[in-house]
Design a protein that fits this description.
Elements lengths: L21 H5 L15 E7 L5 E7 L1 H4 L4 E5 L31 E2 L5 E7 L2 H10 L1 E6 L16 E3 L4 E3 L1 E5 L2 H7 L2 E9 L11 E7 L2 E6 L4 H11 L7 E4 L15 H13 L3 E4 L2 H4 L9 E9 L5 E12 L13 H4 L4 E10 L13 H19 L3 H7 L17 H12 L11 E3 L2 E13 L5 E8 L4 E4 L9 H13 L6 E4 L16 H26 L13 E4 L2 E4 L8 E2 H8 L3 E8 L13 E13 L4 E12 L6 H20 L31 E5 L23 H13 L10 H4 L7
Parallel strand pairs: 1-14, 12-13, 16-17, 21-22, 28-29
Antiparallel strand pairs: 1-5, 2-4, 2-6, 3-5, 7-8, 9-17, 10-15, 11-12, 11-14, 15-16, 18-19, 19-27, 20-21, 20-26, 23-24, 24-25, 27-28
Helix pairs in contact: 9-16, 12-13, 15-16
The structure holds dioxothiomolybdenum(VI) ion.
């Protein structure tokens, strides 16, 4: 079976290419949003509510206002007008927390901003923010972790669009379940999780007359521009958003948050640039999180393992005013062949900040539940879990009745099992040992959507032999700078070190959101079209401008390849470089623009487009001291053509590390007494670190998916986190005999192990 390897040609596509921006990052030269400084700049620090439900009855700012260096304490009465942003057509102006900051005195979650201190230095602003005294009228808050769905109509508002609560249905799932000879009915719980990129969220806002410039670590500069234009009643052209580098986002930086509007409003009121960097604690409160989910999965099967019914009903917590829906049923309708299926969601309102998309939103918690259920069913049937999946592999997407563009999940299983040594697994709990440790082996499959957002790009070929590729998308640490350089190099023949990449700026052609693992897939056609247009202009110049080497030739006689213009009949060796040609024509540069359409959101797709993969996991269990470690992971991903196997492997490894955190460590817990995310710091919110990470063996299949773009490249930012928690919990069960259905797996869960010394 084809797997990705470095290409033998000189093409940059498929090559392990180190980050082109790497030297800037390791030398400290790369400027992140909070690294920009301006003359007269002021610092803002928000004041956080210390209750989760109620009303501010009094705000005493007198002491704070008198503190040294303080310029203003803003609150509802003096912040000025901030208009509520309303979602536009399609995916225009997306915001999760729609209520503008300070709109009313009602507190709906702990940490909601109630005031803003602005001072000459960060330290003065922080001291002033701490000196603001709020008096509250408290209401009873609800952060109950037990999620029962609110009573809601069949069609509900969600963050994006009104959505049917019954998401997918075929056959009669209830009846088929009732009649199934083998049944499984379990509930799986995933906790709230908080995105913890190293880079804190930050805004620097500068007004020059009615022109607003924002430096922000945004995963979508154009969406942020459009939202700010509406909130501050400006034409879009008056707002410029700049995001040169992002210290990771994981979804928390997809949509605008309230601190950004506060910085802009404060800068407007004071007529000075204002910088606002939120604290790590605020990252847990007011810039989104993955919501807690409670998912009931019912499987009905024949005694030989064929699924006859699949039901997936889930609830996620959501905020008081906002409607984020964690789409746990995203992969359920198409992942297995099953004639009777029902996927339904519900939401439970809680006094929490608005949740939002976090790496692999929906599918990650969803596949944890459904893949765990499949593993339990395999144990119940005494069938190998790989075999159970093979038995239920669909031929088409049964939910839409259309073929998959490219689905090679079975090949993933085959390669993963081989690389892992899965055939040596003995199924009995605690039956495998090595060096005095008990081993547990588990596996799971995964899927993630593949689609394109609209994208525009521009390419310049310049008379010094360099090229520039520009698109207003973002590099959130995933390698977009490098991918754009590789794509431009492929088409223009300009070596990577002679290509300038411009992104993260709304003054550039409109690029895609860095979300949904869609940037790479989206920019391929736009960059290629831009290059084709630049080359076409170059050839026109060659035949029309006096002084060029080809001025007597016909356009049809000329060709471009590897950076050279030549007469087709003569071949490239006799041609000239484009730089030479431009110099002869006395032209500094030639530019071309390219544009490609969205496939995301297409209501009538011809193909079902997704990436697939699987994880095989080994854990070691040391019963004497109740120590569990993930000791080995093999991951195989079918994501079409891999443009940069180095950056690609890095994405999957990072996702697997995050998956170890999801399975064993991560949870945001709300204090029942005051509703605060109680472990809101990096000491108490545990994430997987190097010491938790075993060797991770990543393999990519190489089945280009031409439905996505001409290279066949799908995205890989998120899929690696899907399924891994189910593989780990299956391995935990295999080693310890303990079935944990509420993440993360805790030591106290494992103390009930039958495999204790
Ligand atoms: Mo991703 S959660 O779309 O940043």
């Amino acid at each position: 079976m084809p797997t990705t390897r470095e290409t033998a040609t000189t093409s940059p596509i498929g090559r392990k290419t180190p980050r082109v921006e790497g030297p800037l990052k390791v030398s400290g030269t790369a400027q992140y949003a909070s690294d920009f400084h301006f003359p007269g700049m002021l610092y803002a620090v928000p004041v956080e509510a210390t209750i989760a439900s109620g009303r501010v009855t009094k705000l005493d700012t007198a002491a704070a206002e008198k503190m040294p260096g303080v310029r203003a304490i803003f609150h509802r009465e003096n912040i000025g007008k901030i208009v509520r942003s309303v979602q536009g057509q399609g995916f225009e102006r997306i915001v999760d927390e729609r209520r503008p900051p300070f709109e009313d005195d009602v507190i709906r979650y702990y940490g909601q901003y109630i005031a803003l201190a602005v001072a000459d230095t960060f330290e003065s602003a922080k001291a002033a923010a701490d000196a603001v005294r709020a008096t509250y009228e408290k209401d009873k808050h609800n952060v109950d972790p037990d999620l029962k769905a609110d009573d809601e109509p069949d069609v509900v508002e969600t963050s994006f669009v009104p959505t049917k609560r019954l998401q997918s249905e075929r056959g009669d799932a209830e009846a088929a379940f009732a009649n199934a000879p083998v049944k499984l009915d379990q509930t799986y719980v995933t906790p709230a999780e908080t995105h913890n990129p190293i880079e804190l969220q930050a805004t620097t806002a500068i007004w020059e007359g009615s022109m607003l410039t924002i430096y922000e670590e945004s995963q979508g500069v154009f969406n942020l521009r459009d939202v700010l234009a509406q909130m501050f009643s400006l034409p879009k052209e008056n707002v410029r958003v700049i995001t040169k580098f992002v210290g990771s986002g994981f979804g928390s930086k997809l949509w605008p948050w309230t601190h950004c509007a506060l910085a802009v409003a404060a800068a407007r009121q004071l007529g000075k640039p204002v910088k606002l960097v939120i604290s790590r604690k605020m990252m847990f409160q007011s810039v989104g999180h993955r919501p807690r989910t409670q998912q009931r999965v019912r499987l009905g099967a024949s005694t030989d393992g064929k699924l006859v019914s699949l039901q997936h009903e889930y609830v996620n917590h959501h905020a008081i005013l906002d409607n984020y829906h964690e789409d746990c049923g995203e992969a359920t309708p198409f992942h297995y062949s099953v004639p009777n299926l029902r996927v339904k969601f519900g939401r439970a309102r809680r006094n929490v900040g608005s949740p939002t998309a976090m790496r692999g939103p929906g599918a990650v918690p969803g596949l944890y539940a459904t893949e765990s259920a499949m593993n339990e069913l395999a144990d119940q049937l005494k069938i190998d879990p790989v075999r159970l999946r093979v038995l239920n592999e669909p031929k088409i997407d049964e939910s839409l009745g259309i073929p998959f563009s490219s689905r090679h999940l079975l090949e993933c299983f085959e390669l993963g099992a081989k690389e892992f040594g899965w055939s040596k697994r003995t199924s009995e709990v605690g039956s495998m040992k090595r060096d005095g440790l008990t081993l547990g082996w588990g596996m799971a499959g995964c899927a993630w959507i593949a689609a394109r957002f609209p994208a525009e790009a521009e390419i310049q070929l310049r008379d010094d032999g360099t090229a520039r590729v520009a698109s207003g998308t973002q590099d959130i640490g995933t390698g977009t700078y490098t991918i754009l350089a590789q794509l431009a190099s492929e088409k223009t023949g300009v070596p990577l070190d002679k290509i300038e990449v411009a992104l993260g700026d709304t003054s550039l052609p409109e690029g895609p959101l860095s979300g949904g693992s869609m940037v790479t897939g989206s920019v391929v056609p736009a960059v290629f079209a831009a290059a084709d247009n630049a080359i076409a202009s170059l050839l026109t110049i060659a035949t029309t401008k006096p002084g060029t080497q080809f001025e007597k030739r016909k356009l049809a006689d000329l060709a471009f390849e590897g950076g050279r213009v030549f007469v087709k009949a003569d071949g490239p060796a006799k041609g000239v470089s484009f730089a030479d040609l431009l110099r002869h024509a006395n032209i500094r540069l030639v530019a071309g623009s390219g544009k490609s359409d969205a496939t995301f959101g297409n209501p009538k797709p011809k193909f079902s487009t997704h990436s697939f993969g699987c994880h095989f996991v080994e854990v070691t269990w040391q019963p004497e001291i109740a120590r569990l470690r993930v000791s080995r992971v093999v991951t195989v991903i079918d994501a079409g053509r891999i443009i940069n196997p180095l950056a690609g492997r890095n994405q999957i490894e990072g996702a697997v590390v995050m998956g170890i955190g999801m399975a064993l460590l991560e949870h945001t817990t709300y204090d029942p007494q005051n509703g605060a995310p109680i472990n809101s710091n990096l000491a108490d919110y545990m994430m997987a670190v190097n010491a938790d990470v075993p060797p991770i063996d990543v393999h990519f299949l190489d089945f280009p998916d031409k439905e996505i773009n001409e290279l066949g490249a799908r995205g890989i930012g998120e899929i690696g986190l899907a399924g891994i928690a189910a593989a780990i919990t299956a391995a935990v069960h295999h080693a310890t005999g303990v079935r944990v259905r509420e993440l993360p797996v805790k030591i106290e869960d494992l103390l009930t192990s039958s495999v204790l010394a």
